Amino acid sequence: MKARAFSYVCPATVAEALDAFAAAGSEASFIAGGQSLVPALALRLQAPECLVDIGRIAELRGISQDGEWLRLGALTRHVEVHDHPLIAACAPLLALAAPFVAHPAIRNRGTLGGSIALADPASEFPAMMLAVAAEMEIAGPAGRRRVPATDFFQDLYQTAIEPGELLVAIHIPVARPGHRCAFDEFARRRGDYAIVGCGVMLALPADVVNEARIAFLSVGSTPLRARAAEAALNGRPLDAAAIRDAQAALASDLDPADDEQVPAAMRLHLARVLLGRLLGKIAAAA
Amino acid sequence: MDLSISLTVNGVRRDVALDNPRVTLLDLLRERLDLTGTKKGCDRGQCGACTILLDGRRINSCLALAISHDGADILTIEGLAQGEELHPVQAAFIAHDGFQCGFCTPGQIMSAVGLIREGQAGDDPERVREAMSGNLCRCGAYAGITEAVLEAQKTLADAGRRDAA
After folding, report:
1. How does DSSP classify residue B15?
2. DSSP secondary structure code for residue B122 in this structure
3. pLDDT at B1
4. Residue A1 lies in a domain
5. Which of the two residues, A107 and A207, has the higher pLDDT score?
6. N or C, which terminus of chain B has less Cβ within 10 Å?
7. Do B43 and A42 touch (CB under 8 A)?
8. Neighbours of B17 (CB within 10 A)
9. What is the per-residue pLDDT across A27-75, written as a single tens digit (0 to 9) for each?
10. Domain residue spans of chain B
11. pLDDT at residue A138, as a whole number
12. ipTM computed for the complex
């Protein structure tokens, strides 16, 4: 099947992109790396009348550190998240998650901004935005604003980005030396969407956990933070009892549905196994 | 709307007037440039049969709109051999029976060339398998493919050392 016919514009600046989208009306769509949108077009799951290609907007590129914050342009490719030394140093959880994102050929084209704006609850990077406490910078006709990850993911494929607005950058607090992180997921085959995935970030000053942030993918209609599990860890040493309590707390954090892959109870079980492994790994390395 | 683009394909500049912005790089290669070595398997990024190198990196050409890649440098399976001399990856696929029906082979080989350029798998077969996981083979020639990639990587590294010496 071929995509439905569409018109195409390739603006050079964010302002031009917003104008082009506004001119096209509600039937426009932004395209960046195209790794989700192009197959959706080919299958006619989406059929915009106009594609606004943001791929050549220089302002949307680049990874830079400004004091306590790391700025990732929306066009940062998955492969850059995988390889870039600033990511490894300042946002290591993203580097840990990157090898699990699809396959290398997809990672060479797909963009971080595209993945986050799509907000697939089974994708790695949207969930990790919760774990690293990222803020999304959104540009629109009325100007720019920054939305914390906790307010950004609203429902299935629904984010704080309004029609006509564009995600331009992701801002992430730079990880401090005391921070620890870990990521893993269960999938039937490498590169498949995960049955369940989890990223953990926490601080361990004086061997007591604080600032624990635990984010899951593939457990609901949005990426989810496990706040009860976090509360079970904060203020305690990262020992077997704390880990067991955090695993138990997932029952109130997660309410997965049955689906064609696994029943809900198995997904919750796997989430607990995963969290136990990740916390155990962090504890063993501390 | 100006829909003409220029690409460098296998070292040769090609100017193409697209009749429609929905043409993918895969369709452009096969239907406009008659480079049918690049295969269309799933047309949705799941099988890897359409893998090419774009500006030196492997991509699925079915997931790339041609219009978005004006000025790009493209290498396809047709551009690998030097005349009658096969590229080391091609030779290794033959030596190790890295295929049966051959449909996925151009994508496998281009993906392997991309992988070797990335230089991240080393000589660990498990990492080679992981890095080649975006390329499916319905015949199940994976064991031979892994051996071929490892040998070709060694051949290319040895050749690189000879060139440097």
Report:
1. E
2. T
3. 61
4. no
5. A107
6. C
7. yes
8. 9
9. 899 999 999 999 999 999 999 999 999 999 999 999 999 999 999 999 9
10. 3-79, 88-164
11. 98
12. 0.94
Q: What is the CATH number of the domain that holds A46?
A: 3.30.43.10
- Among chain A residues, the shortest Cα distance to B119 is held by A83
Across A166-192, average pLDDT: 93
- Residue A29 in domain: yes
**Strand, helix or coil for residue B31:** helix
The per-residue pLDDT of chain B, averaged, comes to 95
Check if CATH label 3.10.20.30 holds for domain B3-79.
yes
A44 interface with B at CB cutoff 8 Å: no
Q: How far is CA A153 from the centre of its chain?
A: 10
Which of B60, B62, B111, B120 to mutate to probe the A interface, most A CBs <10 Å? B60
CATH class in words for B88-164: mainly alpha
Domain boundary among A172, A200, A225: A172
B111–chain A Cβ distance below 8 A for any pair:
yes
